[in-house]
UniProtKB/TrEMBL annotation:
Keyword vocabulary terms for this entry: Carbohydrate metabolism, Glycosidase, Hydrolase, Polysaccharide degradation, Signal
Name of the featured protein: CBM2 domain-containing protein
GO BP of this protein: polysaccharide catabolic process
Molecular function per GO: cellulase activity; polysaccharide binding
Length: 372
């Protein structure tokens, strides 16, 4: 089946059916449990997710401000096994011994109530890589709930299961078909584009923390691709590193894929990285091989929709969080001879929704793209 997508997202066909089996990416999620000060309504929640390999790891630290709005923030924690930060993004990183401190950049210093910011980093480890369990935001310990001078209640909410409905006081909301919002060098798109689509409302606290409620009929054909986009605009040979991390909460029902959509040579090539698929959805083209690249194992499909070539990497098991070495994937395609030294354009991550009858909620808890 074919539909037409606007704003640089071109025509694509989908067919039913793929079996899921395979490898699960390492992820770590937690909420630190300490008490906050008694003088004002303050508090924060942290979701730390990490992907490691021998000697190295990549992590995102999604911190949500549960107290009054902040104009400038400092996040801090300590490692327990001698880990070191080698490269950071989404904040200014410094480290003294085991203590890591991250301060806001010029573009993400404002952190409203219930807003989330997601600094991320690459690091080194040796022997053991225990995730930190205690964090502070502007000196206030992150308990996972606000503190107003009363002892914190037991049973902190799980960071992997946030309330997936639109939060109050979101920085941006839209129900427009092509609603867009630019934040921190990223652009968010509501992006309802399929024939016979229903309704869809998107909200965002930042490029890294956003979600939507979608109500699309149970019929064939993709109805929408709400996404966050970062433009790279570099030739593949000039990219030293290109990675992305994500953490999402998605529904059990409906038909959709949580997927990256990467564009090269001015939309001549489309590279899809499916991290999670639910319901009767499948990629365009034919199965070429199964390979492990970029930190994941994929079934790899190649096809064309008549407007551009499509290379679809379907993860052999669903995951709701992880880190992807996108440069490694793009170089794998080049080595296969399917394209040359392409110009890498937009890197998008979102939800390609075929059906979501009754209104289903999708939440991006954290997301970032880093390149050099």
């Amino acid at each position: 089946m074919r539909s037409t997508r606007s704003r640089g997202n071109l025509r694509r066909g989908l067919r039913a059916g793929l079996a899921a089996a395979g490898t699960l990416l390492l992820g770590v999620g937690m909420t630190a449990v300490l008490s906050g000060p008694a003088s004002a309504a303050t508090g924060c929640r942290v979701n730390y997710t990490a992907n490691q390999w021998p000697g190295g790891f990549s992590a995102n630290v999604a911190v949500t401000n549960l107290g009054d709005p902040l104009n400038g923030w400092t996040l801090a924690w300590s490692f327990s096994n001698g880990q070191t930060v080698t490269q950071g993004w989404g904040g200014e990183f410094s480290q003294s011994g085991s203590r890591v401190t991250v301060t806001n950049t010029s573009w993400n210093g404002g952190l409203g109530t219930n807003a989330t910011v997601t600094p991320g980093f690459n690091g080194n480890w040796n022997g053991t890589n225990t995730a930190p369990t205690s964090f502070t935001l502007n000196g206030v310990a992150c308990t996972g709930s606000p503190s107003t001078g009363q002892p914190p209640t037991s049973g902190n909410p799980s960071p992997s299961q946030p309330t997936p409905s639109q939060p109050s006081g979101a920085a941006w909301t839209s129900s427009d078909q092509w609603g867009t919002w630019t934040n921190g060098g990223y652009t968010l798109y509501n992006n309802i584009w399929g024939s016979g689509a229903g309704s869809q409302s998107i909200w965002a606290n930042s490029y890294s923390n956003w979600g939507l409620t979608a109500n699309h009929p149970n019929t064939g054909g993709v109805k929408s691709y709400p996404n966050a986009t970062r433009n790279v605009n570099r030739n593949l040979s000039a990219i030293g590193s290109l990675t992305s991390s994500f953490n999402v909460t998605v529904p059990n029902g409906g038909a959709y894929a949580s997927t990256y959509d990467i564009w090269a040579n001015n939309h001549a090539y489309e590279i899809m990285l499916w991290m999670n698929k639910t319901g009767p959805v499948g990629p365009l083209g034919s199965l070429q091989t199964t390979a492990s690249v970029g930190g994941h194992t994929w079934q790899i499909y190649r096809g064309s929709n008549g407007a551009n070539e499509v290379f679809s990497f379907i993860r052999t098991s669903n995951t709701s969080s992880g880190t992807v070495d996108i440069r490694a994937v793009l170089n794998w395609i080049r080595t296969a001879g399917w394209y040359g030294d392409v110009l890498v354009g937009d890197v998008q991550f979102g939800y390609e929704i075929t059906s979501s009858s009754g209104g289903l909620n999708f939440t991006t808890n954290s997301f970032s793209v880093s390149y050099s």
